[in-house]
Amino acid sequence: MTDRPTYQGRPLVRPGEEVFDQGLGFDLGTLMGRRQILRAFGAGVASLGLAACTSESTPAATATTAAATNAEEMPAETAGPYPGDGSNGPDVLEQSGIVRSDIRSSFGGGSGTAEGVPMTLELTIKDLAGGGAAFAGVAVYVWHCDRAGLYSMYSEGVTGENYLRGVQVADAAGKVTFTSIFPACYTGRWPHVHFEVYPDEAAVTDSTKAIATSQVAIPKEHCDTVYAEKGYESSVTNLARLTLATDNVFGDDSAVKQLATVTGDVSGGYTVALTVGVDTTTTPAADGGPPGGGRGGPGGPGGAPPSGPPPA
């Protein structure tokens, strides 16, 4: 009798066919023979299966967990000497009209408009005390200098203006969006945007109720491109003297948590985006100092409201 070909010590049912064409009975025998291998990987397979089921059955819970894992608390920074929130001189937050998305023009008694390369600022606020969920309903106040490095309400020549200041209330996704212009780089400070987060719109009239105060850093490559445009000439020299590591606010960690993601171009404008983690269960670190002093003012330490523009 001629011996049949074998596979793993078992005679093939159909010697002229491939191993996978030997029939159901043969296949089951092969699978049973692999039981030891399956035991070795069983725990891992079961975990993967459970993860897949959880992902499919509870997408909202998975999204919340991912958000909590990815969001980190934003470092606390000084509001600087030009906050315009009543903590150091003038208070724009008491004025009707401050809640707005387009902050390029002054409102109320002001009539000026800040010129420059268009910029859309998008901040997404995460509630770390709530597991990293979207912090819907919080009010966000933003402000920054114009293309000449001047701050409305403070700098000589624009004390009667309040442009490049505004408040938005976060939507269901925790997002606020402002239409503005790309800020300058003035002496001693990396290009940045200030912001304060308040529990709700009603709280913005009292600066002591802010639950987070920090700054957005703008990447160098985009600054270099913008500063080649008309009106930003002084920024070229000022930026050349700085790095994120030597900036008196971002220098402690080179703005690792505050460096924005930027897309766009000069002709169509830029979108500057940052996710901001806010933890209401912690006391913000006072590394920025008080609004009227500490780090963050033009040219170094802050102080009394300036009598003129930031140092050139």
TrEMBL record:
Q: Which Pfam families match?
A: Dioxygenase_C (PF00775)
Q: Where is the composition biased (Gly residues)?
A: 289-302
Q: Which Gene3D superfamilies does the entry link to?
A: Aromatic compound dioxygenase (2.60.130.10)
Biased composition range(s): Pro residues: 303-312
Q: What UniProt keywords are attached to this protein's entry?
A: Dioxygenase, Oxidoreductase
The answer to whether keyword Lipid metabolism applies is no
Q: Where is this region: Disordered?
A: 63-94, 280-312
Q: Which PROSITE patterns match?
A: TAT
Superkingdom in the source lineage: Bacteria
Q: What's the name of the protein?
A: Dioxygenase-like protein
Query: Which species is the source of this protein?
Result: Actinoplanes italicus
State the organism's lineage.
Answer: Bacteria, Bacillati, Actinomycetota, Actinomycetes, Micromonosporales
